[in-house]
Amino acid sequence: MSRSARVIWDDALTSYDFGPSHPLAPVRVELTMALARDLGVLDKVELAGCAPATDDELRLVHERGYIEAVKRVSADGRPDLMAGLGTTDNPAFKGVHDASALIAGASLAAARAVWEGAAEHAINVAGGLHHAMPAAASGFCVYNDPALAIAWLLEQGVGRIAYVDVDVHHGDGVQTVFYDDPRVLTISLHESPRTLFPGTGFPEETGAEGSAVNVALPAGCGDSGWLRAFHAVVPPLLREFRPEILVTQHGCDSHALDPLANLMLSVDGQRAAYAALHRLAHETAGGRWIATGGGGYELVQVVPRAWTHLIAELAGHPIDPATPTGEGWRRFVRERTGETPPLTMTDGRIPEFRDLSGGYDPADPIDRAVMATRHAVFPLHGLDPMP
Fold first, then answer.
1. Which helix or strand (DSSP H or E) is residue 36 part of?
2. Count of structural domains within the chain
3. How far apart are CA 175 and CA 198, in angstroms?
4. Do residues 261 and 253 lie in contact, with contact meaning Cβ atoms separated by under 8 Å?
5. 131 part of the active site
6. CA-based angle 266:231:235, to the nearest 5?
7. Dihedral sign, Cα of residue 157, residue 162, residue 168, residue 172
8. Where is the Histone deacetylase domain (predicted)?
């Protein structure tokens, strides 16, 4: 489907580093790019660099005082708890502004490439820092790069933008920024806020004219249930909204091995979601697709494979799940991390699901979550909530 795909990359993107004991280890993107290169995926895309976001660009989302606070922390490494820096989640470190602004700049570069027609699809795998708020860091996130990309596109005159977030955690920062803006449809599929940070993302959070959509899934939800929920909510809304550009966040912490959450997806189920979003980008947004990474804390077994599949999907050259990972990459993993790498690009699952057209089961917690969302927002879009 793809005509052109651009991967925004600079080795300095790995400088976003909260320290050796922090879950958000930059080695995850390093291993991703190494795997994508080893499998020839990067030969199918255009690699492009980026510049840090300027203060004017950061102010599209973030308050001036917050940006100045991040700069002060960046200069001396001293915490600023009012800015959310110096906590367990968001440790203060020297250079935090520069590292964060570069990630923001990478997502802005992806947005610019798609908007100006230099690429049909573009991705920043180091991005997806969706928890950052206008005046505070939150949930490992300092500057909210997906929100900045969307805000920049709005400044260029884009009239309708859809944002779909498949991270296991609610995309609360992006929702907050655009909650009252009907030009932006935010859709987040996440583990229920009753059991997981950040404690928001209930279906009743509907924004302006139904512009916020939240699918709060029960702990233990696996491939079939997650995909059933996705297809019951996302395609109908995107087809009705008809965005000019689709922006997606691809946290892969919904995987069963992720240590920070409780969903049970496989790499195969995640790959199916990427393929579905690719199809929807072409069906509903004229093929204009901007993607980012996001969460993901199983650094060797999950993140590199999931996001290599994502890059390959953007490139229009999906990887056969049975493909071996390659001895060169496995050697690099062992040298870099001391861990045993996965042997293939699959978890051996076949991500099948039943769609909602056959009816729903009110005793099933996944179906109850789906119907809560559909009842909350579908009528606001002129859609029938019943299957």
1. helix 27-38
2. 1
3. 12
4. yes
5. yes
6. 130
7. positive
8. 22-313
Structure tokens at 244: 């000019």
| Unique residue bearing structure tokens 């920070």 | 260
Cβ atoms 256, 263 nearer than 8 A = yes
**What is the CATH classification number for the domain harbouring 36?**
3.40.800.20
pLDDT of the residue at 199: 98
What pLDDT shows up at residue 2? 59
Q: Is residue 177 part of a domain?
A: yes
Whether cis (ω within 30° of 0) applies to the bond prior to 324 is no
pLDDT, one tens digit per residue, over 255-314 is 999 999 999 999 999 999 999 999 999 999 999 999 999 999 999 999 999 999 999 999
Q: What is the pLDDT of residue 299?
A: 98
Low-confidence ranges of the chain (pLDDT < 70): 1-2
> For the chain, what is the radius of gyration of the CA atoms?
19
57 and 154 Cβ atoms separated by less than 8 Å: no
Asked whether residue 80 is assigned to any structural domain, the reply reads no
* Residue 222, domain member (yes or no): yes
The two structure tokens encoding residue 189: 């599929």
Q: Across the chain, what does the average pLDDT equal?
A: 98
Q: What is the pLDDT of residue 296?
A: 98
Strand-pairing partners, residue 130, are: none
d(CA 278, CA 282): 7
- Exactly one of 131, 170, 278, 309 is catalytic; name it: 131
Give residue 292's domain range. 5-51+96-381
pLDDT score recorded for residue 1: 54
242: left (phi over 0), alpha (psi -120 to 50) or beta: left
User: Looking at residue 101, what is its pLDDT?
Assistant: 99
81 belongs to a structural domain: no
> Which candidate, 376, 375, 373, 366, places its Cα nearest to that of 219?
366
pLDDT at 293: 98
